[in-house]
């Protein structure tokens, strides 16, 4: 579980971003966080990553407060964080090398991630010679080599064209459903501005408003193949209505 125990945060004392949030998010699922610009989605992600600390209350990830160096957390912020002077393979291997993991293990893990994220043939390319979608897959791959149990993604696909975005959404969904390397599965938390992306990918959708209120919904229409389903369109319409009501403070 990811437990929010009256978690509160503000950058400035006069305007709390999160006035005090209490909920438990089930692990092993894909969660989307959606809401108007500036409502605090990235801030909630940073709190889960342990990059900032709550002003009061706590967050527990599997019972423990998140620390910035938590090995099982993969974080991909809006700027990818790739090393431009290293090849794709070297970017993928770096985190494991720093930890002193055996060369043969690194080779096997990197090879698997290259395969999972369809980066075959790009192993020796530098990030500047890769497309936006390939770079984004590489950034996800860099987190995946460490076998995370929690993957935090801040608008990972927003800068991509529609077709590439859909392909990467498929990749991410398949990766999360591949079969867990942890007993609790892989939990993905995704900040997005896209209602369609939230419906396609998520098991739970959390709608945040300008006052830091969060309303959570279950979603059953996720996954490849669902984009053409009537239930997918219905879920998008339903979420759009909820989103608009919530944004106007009516829920
Ligand atoms: N380092 C900071 N110092 C002061 N205020 C900040 C800082 N970072 C963010 N804020 C403010 O906190 C609020 C929440 O910001 P946050 O980036 O979490 O929102 P968001 O929902 O992710 O926005 P967007 O969708 O536009 O990326 C905003 O009003 C923002 O201006």
From TrEMBL:
Could you tell me which InterPro entries the record lists for this protein?
AAA+_ATPase, ABC_SmlMolc_Importer, ABC_transporter-like_ATP-bd, ABC_transporter-like_CS, P-loop_NTPase
Ranges for domain ABC transporter come to: 2-235
Q: Which UniProt keywords apply?
A: ATP-binding, Nucleotide-binding, Transport
Q: Extract the SUPFAM superfamilies matched here.
A: P-loop containing nucleoside triphosphate hydrolases
Q: Which GO terms describe its molecular function?
A: ATP binding; ATP hydrolysis activity
Show the stretches that span the lipid bilayer: none
**Family matches, as Gene3D superfamilies:** P-loop containing nucleotide triphosphate hydrolases
Q: Does the keyword Transferase apply?
A: no
Name used for this protein in its record: ATP-binding cassette domain-containing protein
């Amino acid at each position: 579980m990811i437990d929010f125990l009256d978690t509160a945060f503000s950058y400035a004392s006069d305007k709390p971003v999160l006035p005090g949030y209490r909920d438990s998010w089930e692990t092993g699922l894909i969660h989307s966080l959606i809401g108007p610009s500036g409502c605090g989605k990235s801030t909630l992600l940073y709190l889960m990553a342990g990059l900032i600390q709550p002003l009061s209350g706590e967050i527990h990830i599997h019972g423990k407060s998140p620390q910035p160096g938590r090995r099982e957390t993969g974080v991909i912020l809006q700027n990818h964080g790739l090393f431009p002077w290293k090849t794709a393979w070297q970017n993928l291997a770096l985190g494991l090398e720093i930890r002193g993991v055996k060369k043969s293990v690194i080779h096997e893990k990197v090879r698997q991630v290259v395969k999972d994220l369809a980066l075959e043939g790009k192993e020796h390319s530098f990030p500047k010679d890769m497309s936006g979608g390939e770079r984004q897959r590489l950034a996800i791959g860099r987190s995946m080599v460490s076998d995370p149990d929690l993957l935090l993604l801040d608008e990972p696909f927003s800068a991509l064209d529609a077709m590439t975005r859909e392909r990467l959404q498929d990749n991410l969904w398949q990766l999360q459903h591949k079969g867990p390397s942890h007993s609790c599965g892989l939990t993905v938390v995704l900040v997005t501005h896209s209602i369609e992306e939230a419906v396609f990918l998520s098991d739970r959708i959390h709608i945040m408003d300008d006052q830091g209120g969060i309303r959570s919904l279950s979603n059953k229409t996720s996954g490849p193949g669902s984009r053409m389903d009537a239930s997918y369109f219905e879920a998008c319409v339903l979420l759009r209505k909820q989103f608009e009501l919530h944004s106007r403070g009516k829920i």
